[in-house]
Specification:
379 residues, alpha/beta, 3 domains, 3-stranded antiparallel β-sheet
Length: 379
């Protein structure tokens, strides 16, 4: 069965978690635990919220027990406290595995591996989310050079998820998918009514068309590198993605993208984009984009991602007019603002006040987790 592909450490942790739920009076049977193990193979193990929802559904936790479930989830899967032992024979791992155990991403999924045992007694386990999960929540302004390298790898995986996004529309499939009874019966007419084979349907995989407009003005300096990395990763996964940089001028930079040499690419961009790290005229740049590129790049299937802090030196009325014209020609407008990650931030700048009524989604972009969430809006 598929659940057996999970590392044994995660299965043991799931068994402990199920036992703790039973200790609180929540009915969790063996079949529920098996369903939960299968669910863990289907969700993103680096996304704690996705894991929590998957376990809560597969373990069939009633709504009145959700608060207790959430508290236990934080204890067992959030690294808040070490979980109690499952049984005496399961308490001590084999001698060769008594180093501290950590969840590590190996390129395919999270696995339990031996790590540095400093500060941890032999045989002690503190399950939870480690480096990758912390990296996803770490603000960009706190990144080290090593964090940047790891972020590039994670961004590539997130972009590939968007590239493989499945639509609601069902299309004929050859080997797997839902049974299409109408087509099956139609095929049966050729065999005197015998259902020799079943026709099937599955959800279509369609690549999203995306236009990314990234603010490279001075107020965005500490975020520009990481947000352009995000744009580059999308371009690498989506062949129908276009990337523009803007401040007081608009420049198409799709052809300059080289994900494997980000430092050199940024130097070329700084040299080729006028007024790099200077001021910004968002409305003027959007009007320039519409005048030059709308016929080639925009249609009702295109999502426009605008990445900016909204600190505009231009005319707010021109910005509103450009966004209104853009909205008539594209599928959706997603505005990502890195300042929104600060709880004290209020979008009171004139540019943001003019833009907010005209965008379909306004979200933060100060760390990798918020960029991941924004991918779900680009459909």
């Amino acid at each position: 069965m598929r659940a057996l592909s999970l590392p044994s450490g995660i299965l043991v942790q799931l068994a402990r978690f199920s036992g703790a739920l039973r200790g609180l009076g929540i009915q969790v049977g063996l079949s529920d635990a098996i369903d939960a193990a299968t669910a863990l193979t289907l969700v993103d193990l680096l996304d704690r919220e996705e894991v929590r929802q998957g376990l809560r559904i597969s373990l069939k936790v009633p709504p009145d027990a959700w608060p207790a479930f959430d508290r236990l989830f934080e204890q067992y899967w959030g690294g808040v406290a070490a979980a109690p032992p499952l049984a005496p024979h399961a308490q001590n791992p084999p001698r060769h595995r008594r180093a501290a155990l950590q969840w590590r991403w190996d390129g395919q999924r999270v696995r339990l591996v031996a790590g540095d045992d400093s500060g941890t007694r032999a045989g002690e386990q503190t399950p939870g989310y480690t480096s990758e999960a912390l990296l996803r929540r770490k603000p960009f302004e706190q990144f080290s050079p090593a964090d940047t390298v790891r972020m590039e790898r994670l961004l590539a995986r997130l972009a590939m998820r968007l590239a493989a996004h499945k639509k609601r529309r069902l299309v004929p499939a050859r080997a797997r998918g839902l049974v299409d009874l109408r087509r099956s019966f139609r095929h049966a007419l050729a065999s005197e009514g015998e259902l020799v084979r079943l026709a099937r349907r599955e959800r279509a995989v369609e690549q999203t068309r995306v236009v990314i407009l990234c603010d490279t003005s001075g107020s965005m300096d500490i975020y520009t590198r990481f947000l352009l990395m995000f744009a580059f990763a999308l371009r690498r996964a989506l062949k129908r993605a276009e990337v523009f940089a803007f401040n007081t001028e608009l420049v198409r930079i799709t052809h300059l993208i080289a994900p494997s040499r980000i430092d050199q690419t940024l130097k070329e961009l700084a040299a080729s984009v006028p007024d790099w790290s200077g001021g910004t005229r968002i409305g003027w740049c959007l009007s320039a984009f519409l005048a030059q590129w709308q016929a080639q790049l925009l249609d009702r299937k295109t999502s426009v991602v605008l990445i900016s802090d909204g600190l505009d030196l231009g005319d707010p009325a021109q910005l509103a007019a450009a966004l209104r014209a853009l909205r008539e020609r594209c599928r959706s407008i997603v505005w990502l603002n890195p300042l929104l990650g600060d709880p004290r931030y209020q979008p009171i700048a004139a540019g943001m006040q003019a833009a907010l009524p005209l965008v379909d989604y306004f979200g933060p972009a100060h760390n990798l987790e918020t960029l991941e969430q924004s991918l779900r809006r680009v459909k």
